[in-house]
Design brief:
The complex is a heterodimer.
Chain A (H helix, E strand, L loop, with lengths): L4 E9 L2 E6 L2 E8 H10 L5 E5 L12 H10 L4 E4 L5 H10 L3 E4 L1 H5 L2 H10 L4 E10 L2 E4 L7 H11 L3 E6 L11 H7 L7 E4 L5 H8 L4 E6 L1 H5 L4 H8 L9
Parallel strand pairs in A: 1-4, 1-11, 4-5, 5-6, 6-7, 7-9, 9-10, 10-11
Antiparallel strand pairs in A: 1-2, 2-3, 7-8
Chain B lengths: L1 E3 L7 H10 L4 E3 L12 E4 L5 H10 L3 H9 L4 E4 L1 H4 L4 E2 L13 E5 L9 E5 L1 E3 L15 E5 L1 E5 L5 E5 L2 E10 L2 E4 L7 H12 L3
Parallel strand pairs in B: 1-2, 1-3, 3-4, 4-13, 5-6
Antiparallel strand pairs in B: 6-10, 7-9, 8-11, 11-12, 12-13
The chains are: A alpha/beta, B alpha/beta.
Amino acid sequence: MIKKRIIPILQFKNNLAIKSKQFLKQRNLGNLLQYVKVFSKRQADEMSIINLSKKDSSKTEYDFDFLKNIISECKMPLSIGGGINDISTIERLLEMGCDKIVIGNSFIKNPNFIKNIVKNFGSQLIIASIDVIKKDNKYEIFLKKDLDLIDWIKEVQDLGVGEILLTAIHNEGMMCGYDVNLLNFIYNSISVPLLFNGGASDLKDFEDILSVDKVYGACASSVFLFSEITPNLIKKNISKNINLRII
Amino acid sequence: MILLVNTEVANIGYWEKILKEKKKDYILSNSIQLDTNKISKIIFPGIGNFNKVINNLEKFKIKDKLIFLIKKNIPYLGVCVGMQILFDRSEEDKNSKGLGILEGECLEIKSKKITKPHNGWNNIKYNEKSILFNDFDLKSDLYFNHSYYCIPKNKSLITSSLEDDNEIVSSIENKNIFGVQFHPEKSQNAGMIIINNFLNLK
């Protein structure tokens, strides 16, 4: 049976891994390569790295020489994202050994970009990232408040994305548990595998969301960076009713 | 020397790294030094869209060389779309025309048992014995990432299928031709067993 995944997710700026809280207050964690090696050694199910390197305020910068090393150390399925808005960057990342591409903002600016990627690489390549923030008890898309969350989820699915990575920004880096209410709120609109992110802090958090049928991946970072919990420890302790890949 | 087929829509760099680690001589299909007489094995890594891959084979003028080598019985390992393009066509594109080396087609996953895209770790079961799975433990998970799967006309070519859905073919074999729907290169230790079995073929 298909296994549910536990996915460490790391942000990086230039060559350094960083960790934010609610997308703010970035903390420098040191060399990204070391973290990739650790998760490789632990045989994580998959890993996601998000590029926040910027030369000026607008365009995300891709240092392919640096990423080549990172990718070749990553002995597990890997997705890369952060400001990707052209086919040639995707081609280069794939060529180096990246497996999937995470795209968020570029889709909002240009939904046709989804079709273009599907045509070149197929749906299975794309993870649509949707960052959600809770304001006055309402869920909003972080980068475009006037876009309805449920409508957007349906639209990206119709355009052919393979998976959706949903991040609850208000919980991100806070280690306060996943926003299960958000999961319930969007549940009916989801028709592709859902990866859920933001707030994981203990074993029960993973169990809570992975026991939901449509959730195929539990993403987390702080819990792996700042606690003793590892993906394998989670799997050993919550696997009874959830299909997980036990190493 | 191993021919590594480069369609520019595949994780070629990761395969290069594996072959370097195993100290295997290889050459990329776009190399000007490519001499088909020296090729002893072919690996076709796959990620891209069926039509794009076929078009790029033509664009880079490797389609004919590839067909020539496969027909010359050079051992071939096709991964994901690298297996699918061996067949006549795919539902991924109405006007698609595969290499037609094997009779059959590729269909879109419409299974009640698995989601599309079928992405993640899953188990297989054997249909026919294949040398590719020597020493492989069926309890091991393999990494899949695809929306289409191949159906050979000759069902005896199917060497394994998904444990939870018979319909979804996970590997095929026909004489010198091996195809796998999963990604052995990303399947950690379990995948390495399969890659080694192919590399050790005489």
